Amino acid sequence: MKPPRLSVLSLVSLLAIGGFAGSTRAGDLARTRTPDAASVERGRKALTQQGFLKADWPRDAYEKAAKFWDEPAPDPKRDPEAYAARFRERYGLHPAPFPNDGLPLGLRLGLGPQGTKQGLQIDCMVCHGGSIGGRSYVGLGNTQLDLKSLLFDLTSAVGRRPPFSTFVINSARGTNNAGQIAAALLTLRNPDLSMRAFPLPLGANLPELDTPAWWHLKRKRTMYYDGRTDARSVRTNMQFMLGEKSLAQLRELEPTFRDVQAYLLSLKPPKYPFPIDATRRDRGQKVFESHCVRCHGTYGPDGEYPNKIIAIDVIGTDPARLLGLSDRLVAHYNMTWLGAENPVDTERIGYQAPPLDGIWATAPYLHNGSVPTLHALLDSHTRPARFTRPRSTSFESYDRDHVGWRFRELTPADVADSKKLSPFQAGFIVDTARVGMGREGHRFGDRLTEAERLDLIEYLKSL
Ligand code: HEC
Ligand code: HEC
Q: pTM (2 decimals)?
């Protein structure tokens, strides 16, 4: 039987299911992994120059997408740069920091017949390519992305009907439901990875998430927010290809994805670009040592990362991501080639305390991006229930005192009024009452004095 044509979402990368390291997780010190230089270079090329998926949209979908904007667009033929800038702003994309056929980071020319470049496709960097202070970085989570509008506009632009989605792709900008997209693809595969016409009822119900920075991977023994996957798993990164690739094709691509992983392990966070007050930083380091190190580890050349997964009742953050990964989905994943070497841990514990390298650059915080600044994270009473996200990642939108994005707190009435806004404008509003977007938990900074908190933030800038 001919496999069903999978939706546009089938082309999206990602995933949220993983495998277990095999040795103990909690309390085990993870060593930084140093990848082989030749492999890093092959991985960089594969990630930034090679398309892995068939083109999902003709090339001109890029120009035609503007039909759906609620504002006049620059002419893409007469003024391609102005059009490109508006396109990026519209969907929350960033300039590619490498040659990319005039396309923004995260879009690329897909594969046509005989491997020719043809038509458009999205790649890992649509979510894993962000910018801060006007510079783009591969591996910085994209906190501006409006994935849903991007997919829907490109599809509608070429006269196709966007597929009906049974789950929230993103309710606001910045978050995305990579996990449920991966889960949906897996329901269309049998344990031997042959295609199915009808989805298996695996019961996963994952929420939208903030995309984590890739530069943490080298410190981690286990990955993903729930820490249930061995960080060495290569195959877990290949799930996005389940929309079109056979098991034989996946096997053939595995060495390339081993190189891609080597490249991810080579990435480093950008340094905080403004002055840091050394006296306050040193005082802040003491605060960090007494309140934070046991979970988040130490930094600098001899830094040690404890790789702890904290039980949900202790961390207290939004449980939807943890609970949404169903046992049936995990069992199914583990039966396939994807999970054969590194099966997902069948135990559900909580969330992994992440390394904090480059934390200044990755606001908003927590796995769901529900907290706009470090200050609000460390004083839970001040976390806004509803707030606006900035329109750009320039330093004008950046709050150096509180570290994170400047925001405006909104009232329930503002949110009700937002129904009158265009979907584009409404996308800038984060409402922590939405499923999976709760701002609760992680109250470890609440008992600090304000002076200690500000010292601690000064230290965090230096990581
Ligand atoms: C649609 C957005 C999206 C795309 C596309 C995407 N990812 Fe992700 N990625 C995420 C999100 C969100 C998470 C966090 C998932 C979780 O933990 O539940 C994640 C997690 C990861 C992690 C684990 C990081 C950690 O420290 O735990 C790796 C590695 C990763 N992605 C690699 C890739 C690669 C390689 C690609 C392309 C082949 C890719 N991703 C494509 C959104 C995406
Ligand atoms: C008991 C363990 C524990 C302690 C103590 C702890 N944290 Fe955390 N921290 C976590 C976990 C687990 C998460 C992930 C929670 C989530 O995303 O839902 C986290 C998340 C964070 C984040 C957000 C990371 C991101 O990328 O969004 C920051 C920043 C942070 N912690 C800083 C601190 C600081 C500073 C302290 C000391 C005052 C501290 N933490 C104390 C466990 C802990």
A: 0.93
